Known about the structure:
Number of domains: 1
Oligomer: single chain
Order of helices and strands: EEHHEEEHEHEE
Strand content: 25-35%
Number of helices: 4
Amino acid sequence: MLVREFEFKMKDGRTASVRSPREDDAAGLLDYLYVTACETEFLMRYPEECGKYTIEGELRFIKNANSSDREAAALCLVEGEIVGLANVSWSGAIKTKHRASVAIALIREFWDQGIGTVLMEELIRIAEENEDLIQIELDFIEGNVRARALYEKLGFRIVGVKPNAIRLKDGTLLNEYSMIKEIKR
């Protein structure tokens, strides 16, 4: 589904825009995926794993997200550069159509500018518009205190832990935490 287009002021005073991705964003999305993977251990990919992503794959992602009635992708741009992406999706299956899943990542240079809050609030708004949904779910990796603080600020709470779910290259094992936000009707 398409995300409404809007602009907002970041904490540093610059203007950012939010919209659905377009076909001409495909190359920029590939760059974004690689850059974000280089900047943090808290994503589910390393930079060398970004080679599996292709322009054709990004074009499919864009088409699927924009035409779906159970998925939306919100792109954040600053001065024409993709700096963040967040998405929300849910199943059409009878037993799980009440649950939505969200994910988000930002380029480090744009952390602490309010972008994460704006993108997550937009995903929550989209989920709340679907009468079938009663909860929004996400996972975060142990040590990602900034993400946890954002999610808790927006009403998510921890409901479970997957011990040793993540294994870094150096052998460090990290827990993965599951959170939900209940949609009040």
